[in-house]
Design a protein that fits this description.
It is built from 14 helices and two strands; from the N terminus they run H-H-E-E-H-H-H-H-H-H-H-H-H-H-H-H. With 407 residues, the chain is mainly α. The chain has one domain: Ammonium transporter fold (Orthogonal Bundle). It has a two-stranded antiparallel sheet. Helix 2 crosses helix 3. The longest helix has 32 residues. The mean pLDDT is 95.
Length: 407
């Protein structure tokens, strides 16, 4: 009944996307100061547990089951996987079991809120983060996953997002910015990355996993799958080198962390467009990502916004830029199921892409700020000055990343 090749590929893609969350933990853990390594890493790993539970109970259903509230979110028809059994095909591709599609999409839900944590490293209590993790998914991620990928409101208006420029990166990036404004600046902003090799390991895992993130989003095995795979690598490579060159020219030294950050910016930016644009367009998107995301980080620093690990500049701006550039470069010649962008005469498509990503970003920003204020009523959001000075590893978790004798 099911195609074993397609099913096998999607299980592999699911595994690759799962690997991105530990990769993110290593990436953020390396960037954090040595007193806050475990505090940031546990926030990624705990999402794997809590989000999986939520996805089974109601998340999958709210994203991919019917329509409610005018297409803003799904319904609860498939809560607890009701009606989904071993013989249930995925409605979008009957070669694939619905169980596998459910698992694949669950991995996206796991990593999206974890992306936000890099912005408020060493400033948020673990209890408040757990409330944040649950509420943000229910009221931000699930609605946008349904509206874009579940046949909801935005999809009905022709909005495209191949693998998560709106659903994942723009919403997470602008939520991160809101959290920075709410919790304020770190007391010690000069804390350097504790381990550049750990950042490199995390980047490698993210880049590797991103092939499943983007190529797997075709939900089949065909030429578009290969296009998305190659576009992912090309955009990341161009962005990494562009960021390296810019930083080298400004600081007079080639920075390894800059190269790695540029690669992640390119990966985030190509995500919404990976299966809808040509290879030369992917290269241009990568170049744009290297320039624009670098400038966004520079602007953040100039304005004094304490987004510690540049979530807004890399993921928020990268995701939004990718959605807009999809509106420019999209071509039905590359993917008949897509659209023609501005360069092909698709001015309407370009405008709806811009409107969708601006609206999603504003909603994620405003809702996140209000939600943190509400959480603070019953669970203290910001750590105390003493906890921050001691470091969250010791003050909140009673653990340390490295034996003190080796430092």
């Amino acid at each position: 009944m099911f195609d074993t090749g397609t099913t096998g590929f999607m299980l592999l893609a699911t595994s690759l996307v799962m690997l991105m969350t530990p990769g993110l933990a290593f990436f953020y853990g390396g960037l954090a100061g040595k007193r806050n390594i475990l505090g940031i890493m546990i926030q990624s790993f705990v999402s794997m547990g809590i989000t999986t539970i939520m996805w089974f109970i109601c998340g999958y259903s709210l994203c991919f089951s019917g329509d409610s509230l005018g297409g803003l979110i799904g319904n609860l028809d498939k809560a607890f996987m009701h009606g989904v059994d071993l013989n249930s095909p995925f409605p979008g591709n009957h070669k694939l079991p619905e169980f596998v599609f459910m698992a694949y999409q669950m991995m996206f839900a796991i990593i999206t809120p974890a992306l936000i944590t890099g912005a408020f490293v060493n400033r948020v209590t673990f209890k408040a983060y757990l409330f944040f993790l649950i509420l943000w998914q229910l009221l931000v991620y699930y609605p946008f996953a349904h509206m874009v990928w579940g046949g909801g409101l935005l999809a009905q208006h022709g909005v495209l997002d191949f693998a998560g420029g709106i659903v994942v990166h723009a919403t997470a990036g602008f939520a991160a910015l809101a959290s920075v404004f709410y919790v304020g600046r770190r007391r010690d902003r000069e804390s350097p990355p504790n381990s550049v090799p750990l950042i490199a390991i995390g980047t490698g895992l993210l880049w590797f996993g991103w092939y499943g993130f983007n190529a797997g989003s075709e939900l089949d095995v065909n030429a578009i799958t290969g296009l998305a795979f190659l576009n992912t690598d090309v955009a990341a490579s161009f962005a990494a080198i562009v960021w390296l060159v810019i930083e080298w020219s400004v600081q007079r030294r080639p920075k390894f962390v800059g190269l790695l950050t540029g690669a992640v910016a390119g990966l985030a930016t190509i995500t919404p467009a990976a299966g809808f644009v040509s290879l030369p367009s992917a290269a241009l998107i990568g170049i744009a990502a290297g320039v624009v995301c670098y400038l966004a980080v520079h602007l953040k620093n100039k304005l004094g916004w304490d987004d510690a690990l540049d979530v807004w500049g890399v993921h928020g701006i990268g995701g939004a830029l990718g959605v807009i550039l999809l509106g420019v470069f999209a071509s039905k010649a590359m993917n008949a199921g897509g659209a023609d962008g501005l360069l092909k005469g698709g001015s309407h498509f370009f405008l709806i892409q811009c409107a969708a990503v601006i609206g999603a970003s504003l909603y994620a920003f405003l809702f996140t700020y209000v939600m943190l204020a509400l959480i603070n009523v019953f669970a203290r959001v910001k750590v105390s000055e003493e906890e921050e000075d001691l470091g969250l590893d010791a003050s909140l978790h009673g653990e340390q990343a490295y034996d003190a004798g080796t430092l």
